[in-house]
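Section 5: illustrative case.
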């Protein structure tokens, strides 16, 4: 069924043609509101020249893509749009997963679930999150966690890549704006939702999902009231495969051929049992007394929870490092079957960094039960009023409460006894970067030599007494207040339509971190909690993963952990973790002035934003003297700065389907709240300081964009663009000389101490190329006279190429060097195909992201720079429209089941004489695999 309307009619009648999807009209209305003159001109031009927009009730993908493209085309700045119907066509359970399929977007995952968004190669803290155009603080802080926001609340997702003066200056790479649904998006009473069930491949564990939207419109006097309520729920039970290795440079390893060898200090398996939930409730009232006034009240409450039971088997390879010889003479490096020491990092035993045997290792096992919660509760009252003479007033008041609950129900440490023969001997093989192979043996001691005994399969046959118990209540709370007032005026100027905007915004954000813990040690105290040897704490549940670990184990009993936690609360009082407790308040007074001048040939948008930012912090400092005495003192800090953010956007219509965009933008990414806190931990013996840095400078970025867009008729899109950003004062965690006398006391000069915390790197750049293409094949198959069924195919593809470089300061014996920007992948692309015809919709989507820098290494103490390896994902979805009210669906996620791998690369480190660190390979530090997921269910729409 196909109905063809002119562009003007499509904006009025698209709801009826879209089988209740209600996508085209809200999108077009948004475009008209953002750019009314351009929207009207585009509609009139399309009608006058006989061009039309195709609206097809049986083609939801093509139609929602066309609607989204209309918003992009009419925008005065560079945006990418995902309509809610398009979001729901793939298994996108959160905003990060949905946005990750759009051009210029890369995602970072946790436990296989998309979490952070990087726009056009920028660090993840350069991307901000907003609801209906108003920025909100993520529970985690500056790095917006998008997995805490369910995709079900989105009417559409608009990604602003080129910032305008209306946006906060902390928006550097861009903003992800979640536009919520309104009752005015629908005709009268509207109900839609879905319900589904699925399973995980690993362990056969369950997955549940459901959502519901209810809305209606009511006459109130001469006006109309719209009421919308919505809710969503998603639960995912899962297990993971994991191994991790911590690499270190061993100073005693000085034999010939050393070349700064790095060894595994600790090898471990973290074996997770997880229950993750995303749920949300939201309500919205929109009152329109007439066509010129609107008042909206919106509330959104979202929760992400992660109930985690983690069995962590850690093998302490360097436990006996102190027994290593400092000799530098050559020795026999043949493999020995017995040795006088543990043989850690000792080539004379025959061991190498990637293969060997270590005797009498301490098993440092941890059983952890966490109850992690992140929530956002945001409430907005907004009004929009039009007056005679082209004047318009918009006002907004918002209160948002973001909570990050990192509590640990209980964690028990189990450690091998001191007797070496009661500990395992471990053979290791790390030559395969995707597998850490460990073999366990008993340990024999004879004639002063240690050797491996019989092979042991079940690790829990080794004695592991309880050594510690910890309970943590940790909640970070951010309370934010925002007030915004924007006055605009439409007039004629220089032969064009001019919209002038002047605005003021006040933001106050207060983040308070509060950690309280109970820490128990000593055999008698642990026995009082029911903790003795691990053999009394385990369950009968067999391992549900698939990784070949070289040993078997038993999951711990979560009920026994809760019993121990309850007893600890009865017997012991909680004490504050003063090093981690702080309060930081940020106040931002912002004003902006901008003008948008529109002509038949395009538009010019120019303006500037000024922000005065004040930060105050209160925390506790801890000082450990050279004699071992620990004291604390209250610390406070205050800083302020005035920043200006000019921007310019030029849009030129080559013709009615082709557009050129040029823009200049500026931004400043501030350090996170916990990084700016005045907490410090001072150790006079080590002459070291760690903690926050209230004096840290913001990252500054100055960008230029040049894009070409072709909105092909009757359907299709082609885009290509170049972008460049000059960056200064890049934020990264490192060590440096403290360089200040602010912490001097008692006659002690601490200005030359080593400081570890957030610091500024030098200047650099980020530049890249972005291309995108999407096309429904139906117009071409019709012209070619091909069978009707062949017109159901469509494709979409996008690609991003990046290059970045920043100068990192010299440290110790390592010279200044060039490094990448964190989170920047050289290559990111999406490739997808779909088929929709006769009520059937099939879609297959592939995503690829090349490796990216996670953390910059100062030296070889942690192995070098840390990277995430390349990531690729493939998802499939199928839908069948039974009738206009009911459809069924099937989703298959993570079909490739590729591992998430992190590694260290020492090769980038350069010593003071200009020589490299001498490495030609990278070393795996973390490897995880999560299994495929399959879900099916029903969707309804009334």
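Designed sequence:
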């Amino acid at each position: 069924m196909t109905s063809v309307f002119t562009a003007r009619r499509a904006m009025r009648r698209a709801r009826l043609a879209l089988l209740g999807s209600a996508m085209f009209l809200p999108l077009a209305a948004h475009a008209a509101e953002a750019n009314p003159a351009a929207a009207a001109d585009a509609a009139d031009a399309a009608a006058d020249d006989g061009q039309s927009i195709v609206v097809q009730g049986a083609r939801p993908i093509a139609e929602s893509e066309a609607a989204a493209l209309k918003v992009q085309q009419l925008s005065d700045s560079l945006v990418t749009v995902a309509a809610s119907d398009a979001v729901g066509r793939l298994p996108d359970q959160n905003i990060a997963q949905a946005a990750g399929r759009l051009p210029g977007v890369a995602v970072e995952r946790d436990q296989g679930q998309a979490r952070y968004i990087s726009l056009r190669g920028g660090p993840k803290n350069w991307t901000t999150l907003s609801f209906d155009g108003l920025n909100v603080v993520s529970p985690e802080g500056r790095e917006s966690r998008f997995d805490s926001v369910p995709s079900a609340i989105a009417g559409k997702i608009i990604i602003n890549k080129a910032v305008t003066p209306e946006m906060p200056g902390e928006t550097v790479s861009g903003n992800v704006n979640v536009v919520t649904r309104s009752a005015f998006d629908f005709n009268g009473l509207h109900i839609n939702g879905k319900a589904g069930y699925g399973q995980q491949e690993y362990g056969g564990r369950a997955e549940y999902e459901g959502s519901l939207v209810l809305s209606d419109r009511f006459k109130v006097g001469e006006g109309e009231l719209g009421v919308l309520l919505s809710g969503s729920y998603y639960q995912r039970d899962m297990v993971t495969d994991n191994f991790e290795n911590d690499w270190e440079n061993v100073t005693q390893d000085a034999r010939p051929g050393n070349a700064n060898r790095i060894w595994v200090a600790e090898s471990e398996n973290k074996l997770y049992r997880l229950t993750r939930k995303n749920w949300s409730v939201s309500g919205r009232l929109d009152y329109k007394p007439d066509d010129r006034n609107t008042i909206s009240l919106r509330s959104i409450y979202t929760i992400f929870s992660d109930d985690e039971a983690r069995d962590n088997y850690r093998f302490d390879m360097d436990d006996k490092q102190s027994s290593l010889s400092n000799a530098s003479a050559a020795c026999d490096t043949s493999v020995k079957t017995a040795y006088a020491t543990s043989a850690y990092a000792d080539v004379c035993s025959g061991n190498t960094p990637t293969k060997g045997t270590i005797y009498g290792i301490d098993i440092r096992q941890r059983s952890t039960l966490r109850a992690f919660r992140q929530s956002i509760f945001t409430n907005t009252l907004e009004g929009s009023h039009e007056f005679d003479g082209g004047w318009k007033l918009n006002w907004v008041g918002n209160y948002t409460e973001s909570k990050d609950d990192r509590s640990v129900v209980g964690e028990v440490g189990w450690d091998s006894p001191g007797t070496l023969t009661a500990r395992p001997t471990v053979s290791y093989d790390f030559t395969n970067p995707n597998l850490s192979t460990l073999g366990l043996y008993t340990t024999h001691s004879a004639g002063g030599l240690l050797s491996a005994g019989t092979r042991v399969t079940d690790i829990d046959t080794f004695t592991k007494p309880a050594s510690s118990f910890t309970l943590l209540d940790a909640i970070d709370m951010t309370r934010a207040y925002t007030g915004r007032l924007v006055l605009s005026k439409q007039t004629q100027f220089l032969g064009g339509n001019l919209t002038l905007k002047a605005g003021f915004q006040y933001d106050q954000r207060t983040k308070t971190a509060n950690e309280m813990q109970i820490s128990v040690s000593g055999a008698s105290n642990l026995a009082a909690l029911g903790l003795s040897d691990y053999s009394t704490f385990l369950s009968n549940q067999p391992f549900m993963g698939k990784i070949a670990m070289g040993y078997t184990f038993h999951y711990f009993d979560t009920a026994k952990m809760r019993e121990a936690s309850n007893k600890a609360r009865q017997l012991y009082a909680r004490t504050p973790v003063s090093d981690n407790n702080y309060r930081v308040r940020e106040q931002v007074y912002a004003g902006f002035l901008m003008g948008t001048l529109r002509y038949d040939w395009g538009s010019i948008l120019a303006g500037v934003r000024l922000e005065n930012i004040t930060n105050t912090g209160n925390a506790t400092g801890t000082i450990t003297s050279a004699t071992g005495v620990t004291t604390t003192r209250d610390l406070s800090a205050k800083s302020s700065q005035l920043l200006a953010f000019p921007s310019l956007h030029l849009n030129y219509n080559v013709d009615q389907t082709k557009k050129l965009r040029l823009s200049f933008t500026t931004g400043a990414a501030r350090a996170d709240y916990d990084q700016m806190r005045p907490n410090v931990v001072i150790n006079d013996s080590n002459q070291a300081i760690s903690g926050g840095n209230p004096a840290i400078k913001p990252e500054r970025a100055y960008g230029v964009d040049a894009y070409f867009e072709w909105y092909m008729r009757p359907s299709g899109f082609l885009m290509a663009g170049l972008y460049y950003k000059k960056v200064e004062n890049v934020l990264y965690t490192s060590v440096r000389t403290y360089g200040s006398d602010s912490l001097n006391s008692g006659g002690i000069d601490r200005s030359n101490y080593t400081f570890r915390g957030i610091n500024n790197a030098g200047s650099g750049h980020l530049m890249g190329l972005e291309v995108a293409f999407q096309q429904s094949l139906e117009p071409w198959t019709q012209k070619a006279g091909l069978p009707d069924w062949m017109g159901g195919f469509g494709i979409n593809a996008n690609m991003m190429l990046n290059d970045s470089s920043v100068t990192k300061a010299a440290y110790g014996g390592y010279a200044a060097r060039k490094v990448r920007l964190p989170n920047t992948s050289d290559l990111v692309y999406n490739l997808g195909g779909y088929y929709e015809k006769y009520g059937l919709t099939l879609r297959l989507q592939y995503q690829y992201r090349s490796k990216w820098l996670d953390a910059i290494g100062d030296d070889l103490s942690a192995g070098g720079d840390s990277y995430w390896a390349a990531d690729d994902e493939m998802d499939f979805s199928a839908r069948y429209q039974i009738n206009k009210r009911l459809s069924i669906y099937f989703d298959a996620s993570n079909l490739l089941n590729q591992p998430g791998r992190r590694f260290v690369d020492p090769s980038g480190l350069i010593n003071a004489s200009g020589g490299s660190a001498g490495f030609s390979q990278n070393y795996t530090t973390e490897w995880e695999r999560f299994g495929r997921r399959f879900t099916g269910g029903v969707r309804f729409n009334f």
